[in-house]
Amino acid sequence: MEPFGTASLSEALKVNTCLTSFDLSSKQIGDPGAASLSKALTVNTSLTYLDLSVNKIGASGAASLAEALTVNICLSSLDLSYYQIGDPGAASLSKALTVNTCLTFDLSANYN
Q1: Looking at the DSSP assignment, which residues form a beta bridge with residue 79?
Q2: What is the pTM of this model?
Q3: CATH assignment of 3-106, given 3.20.20.70, 3.80.10.10, 3.40.50.150, 3.90.1280.10?
Q4: What is the mean pLDDT of residues 76-80?
Q5: Helix, coil or strand: residue 60
Q6: Helix ranges (DSSP H) in 23-79
Q7: Residues 6+ apart with CB under 8 A from 110
Q8: pLDDT at residue number 111
Q9: Interior angle at CA 15, CA 12 and CA 16, nearest 5
């Protein structure tokens, strides 16, 4: 998915109040797409499940998501499997979990 596509979806998520589950797996959104989605997650009040698996998101994308997850109180499950977040990305997500204690992650098959 091109950056414009992810940015457009993110803008829609900012105002959508009905969508509870969103599967963006295998769309190759990368770090720029993760940053766009992170902005939406800071204000979205309905999404409870987000699948971002197999999206070539690295440490900076994980950091963007982690920052959003410290303020998002609705998301309860996030699939981040098959990423390349490395130790820095894992550290960012760990910090988010100290604030957001209701969230579950799938971090399977992560590698550097």
Answers
A1: 51, 106
A2: 0.89
A3: 3.80.10.10
A4: 93
A5: helix
A6: 30-41, 59-69
A7: 80, 81, 82, 83, 84, 85, 90
A8: 62
A9: 75
